[in-house]
Design a protein that fits this description.
alpha+beta, five-stranded antiparallel sheet, 9 helices, elongated
Length: 236
């Protein structure tokens, strides 16, 4: 890890439960386009809209939304099989039915940005969303503003020769006030471009842009209204 920060801890309200593994709840409803679908909640936290996938083998995690697949991938083989079965039932019953009382609302754009990314609020959760190019620029902006918080043993490799870890640690005692001096040292050393490239390569953009869980997501899996080539970062 190149950079120190802590994710928030919060729990959403579970949706209506049906027969399924512990921690899994879902209810039928309609997606923003009117298509019947299921809203799935994992352990009261991860909410996704799930629709049946046409054709193919759905016994692995590839067809699932990323938020679901990443959580289930940590389970045992037997637990994964149980959850896959439950997800398939939820998707198929929702797609075959008339929909339920719940109706998805489109994400609401917020009047502020997150390092240049447009932010949206949806069902109490806030996400910053952007294209590949916009996400790269946002990560660069975040890193430029938070050089002071980098792990000294990582940062020292981007500073001029002669600057040691102890010097960085002494500067970091000033917290945010140390950012200007440390940024100047980075620019005098290997440069900001090199630091950004190294940090993103080590930790990923999500580590810097998703304050809630450090995860980068395919934005279309957060909500169907987002385009296929956009990325989302939960910020609350």
């Amino acid at each position: 890890m190149t950079h120190t920060t802590n994710p928030a801890s919060e729990t959403a309200t579970p949706v209506v439960a049906k027969a399924a593994p512990t921690g899994f709840t879902w209810e039928p409803g309609r997606c923003p386009d009117g298509t019947p679908c299921a809203r799935v909640t994992l352990y009261g936290e991860t909410k996704v809209h799930l629709v049946a996938q046409g054709g193919g083998d759905r016994t692995d995690l590839a067809w699932m939304p990323q938020a679901v697949a990443s959580r289930i991938s940590t389970f045992t083989d037997a637990e994964q099989a149980e959850w896959v079965d439950a997800l398939e039932v939820a998707a198929d019953e929702a797609a075959d039915g008339e929909g339920g009382d719940w109706e998805a609302e489109a994400p609401e754009e917020q009047p502020w940005d997150h390092h240049g990314l447009t932010t949206y609020k949806w069902e109490g959760e806030e996400y910053a969303v952007g294209t590949e190019e916009e996400a790269d620029a946002a990560a660069r902006s975040y890193i430029e503003d938070s050089v002071w918080a980098f792990v000294p043993s990582f940062l020292v490799g981007y500073l001029p020769e002669g600057i040691d870890v102890e010097t960085i640690e002494a500067l970091q005692e000033k917290c945010e006030s140390a950012n200007g001096p440390l940024l100047a040292l980075v620019k005098a050393g290997r440069g900001l471009d090199a630091l950004v490239e190294g940090a993103v390569c080590a930790d990923g953009r999500g580590h810097f842009l998703a304050a809630y869980d450090f995860e980068e997501r395919d934005a279309s899996e957060i909500h169907s209204s987002f385009g296929p080539d956009t990325f989302g970062y939960r910020v609350n």
